[in-house]
Amino acid sequence: MNYLILVSHGQFSEGLRDALSMFIGDDIEQVRAIGLKSGEDTTNFGSRFKSLLSDIAPDDGLIVLGDIIGGSPLTTVTDILNQQQRLSETIVLGGMNFPMALNAAILKNTMSGDDLVSAVLHEATTAVKQFELIEADEDEDEI
């Protein structure tokens, strides 16, 4: 089984998981979320992350999405995965957004490796655009 783990500062990851549940239904059980709380040290955060992993089998696949590459939450998570010798088999991506998380949640059991990374990153970047209001032609109103 493959798990999607959302990692963030604050409650962003928990909110994102909640929003994902509206789209993926029962598959939400394979999505975990953890955020570094305001004022929390990384040691405590790391302990909470280890607890989050405790019921995931060592041979289960992991896809980790973090809010910021190089931020304390994601570096703590990758350090722990490295200590547990799971990092080399884990896909880790930063710059998490909703389209990226939704795509990862949907594709995590049907794609792997570079194909999964390409699909998830493509969706993450193509979904970011400015909303533009398009005026209807007056001719179209007369139909």
Automatic annotation (TrEMBL):
Gene3D superfamilies: Phosphotransferase system, mannose-type IIA component. One of its GO terms (cellular component) is membrane. GO terms for biological process: phosphoenolpyruvate-dependent sugar phosphotransferase system. Keywords: Transferase. The keyword Transferase applies. Residues 1-128 form the PTS EIIA type-4 domain. GO terms for molecular function: transferase activity. PANTHER family: PTS PERMEASE-RELATED-RELATED, PTS SYSTEM MANNOSE-SPECIFIC EIIAB COMPONENT-RELATED. This is PTS fructose transporter subunit IIA.
